Amino acid sequence: MQGISNKIKIIFFLIVIAVIAFLPTVTSQYFSVFLYQLFIYMILAISYDILGGYTGYMNLGHSCFFGIGGYTFAILANKNLGLLVSMVGGMGAAACFGLAISYPFFRLRGAYFALANLGLIILLGLLAHNLKPLTGGADGLFIPIPYALSAVYYSSLLLCLLTILLSYRIGKSRFGLALVSIRADEDVANAFGINPYWYKLAALILGAIPASLAGGIFAWALTYINPDSLLGIEIALVPVTMAMLGGTGFVAGPILGSLFISVVQELVWTKLPYLHLAIYGAILILIGLYMPGGLIRTKAFQRTLSRLGLTERLYWYSPKQISGL
Amino acid sequence: MVLLEGKDIVKAFGGLTALSNVDFIVQEGEILGLIGPNGAGKTTLFNVITGVYPPTSGTVHFKGKEISSMRPDTISHKGISRTYQLVRTFQGLTVLENTLVGRFFGRRGQTTSDAESMEEVFGLLEFLDIEAKANHLVENLTMADRKKVEIARALATHPKLLLLDEVMAGLNPTELERMIEIIREINKRGITLILIEHQMRAIMNLSQRILVLHHGEKIAEGTPHEVANDPAVIQAYLGD
Lengths: 325, 240
Description:
The structure holds two protein chains of two kinds. By secondary structure, chain A is mainly α. Chain A is 76% helix and 1% strand. Chain A has a domain at 38-233. A two-stranded antiparallel ribbon of chain A has the order 1-2. In chain A, helix 7 (149-171) packs antiparallel against helix 10 (196-222), helix 12 packs across helix 13 and helix 13 (252-271) packs antiparallel against helix 14 (276-290). Chain A starts with 5 loop residues before the first helix and ends with a helix. Chain B folds into two domains: 1-79 and 159-240, P-loop containing nucleotide triphosphate hydrolases (Rossmann fold, 3-Layer(aba) Sandwich); 89-158, no CATH class. In chain B, strands 6-7-8-3-9-10 form a six-stranded mixed beta sheet, sandwiched between helices. In chain B, a hairpin with a 2-residue loop joins strand 9 (209-214) and strand 10 (217-222). In chain B, helix 3 packs across helix 4 and helix 3 (95-105) packs parallel to helix 5 (143-155). Chain A binds chain B through residues 174, 177-178, 180-181, 183-185, 187-195, 313-317, 321-322, 324-325, and chain B through 50-52, 71-73, 76-77, 81-82, 84, 88, 90-94, 96-97, 100-102, 104-107, 114-116, 118-119, 122, 134-135, 153, 157.
């Protein structure tokens, strides 16, 4: 458990962030776009993990929040409400949607919860197709707000960092302990003073907020959205795969998973243009088979993480802590 | 003083009546034994008291207030806690984290810092001789230790009334001896106890009064001596 001191840890992370922030000035535009997309996926994977990982409620419909955030942003932007108001509007809409589905959906558990939410994405996709006056239907919507790659890059980077911080803080808090105890045994958690509904709702909304903002940034950068780009099945399932592959229930998991999949996808896609999907699928299956706890639960990563002083334990007893009292 | 009172409790699951018209009283500070053959409704009674199931009819009063329609989390905040017959510790969490759940969420009132809470919880783990395993995952513990984790988690909620569901089942003689001491000590600290137990020697020794259930009905109530010599009890256990 003993690692390097806190100060060095923080300096280390600041250097990493500074390097990432500095990258677009020295690398190609292609690479910046790659990184920005990685940030978006990372935000989705981490925000999925708040409910899906800590609380154990696998929400296959997490991208609903992404889609609602993106669409609301586009609709409000077309009403000339400006970037910031449109973003916040998207966030509000997603949070209200979360609130609305929480009551019926949290009566479901396990696979039923996951499937009901997956159905929700398909439903929203249909709505986006058919509510023509609002969403433009299959023709989609143009976003009238001009964008610069650097603005998109830095706003997604900032949102990504904030999401990481949010998930990390949850993982070290009493709130997080309540979520994890719900994952372990919801009825027992209830018997020990936790009202699961409120905690699950809070986890859902806390996950919805970053996802909806990511949807807004994504729509802004795309300049044109349609139902497939925001509510397609790929954007729904890839972040979940990333989180599970990296390891759920600890912020390092989705970070690592999204990094890993994005890089593998990029390499396979550019080096093996014909076989890339087959190879990609094979890698996913192999990891699922041999690393059921995800990449971060393997010995090598555990060692690295503990050297960085990062553990997934919420509370750790060390005699020093007590004797200081 | 009466701490807990059940009046005319009926609990039916569809056509099956798990409890029929059970009345009982628990005095503050006592140890009440709850015995009966398998399927008699003992655990169901615990579930009714702790709010897992609302009774089909009848009421439960705790400290004079009705609790029969309250949710389990509210009942925990009122000061009733429990352990489970089939141990239900939080898998994937350490002994310390399991106990902290009880400390942080199981009771109402003063909030304390994490360090203070940990110190308090650590004291409980010491009392139950599992402090050396504070950072172990519960799934790596022996059954006896996991039962102790359940007791620690329940005690961390500062209960007035603690329901222990077969905490002595499956323990070896040394562990059993120690568990009896622990139960006595918990009672000495001013916590009222209801014990469900099949270990007859232990329960006869520990309880001031015993309540016997059979097929969901109360067939006897009294001191251990009275109950042991009750013809209805003998018949329930040994048959005709």
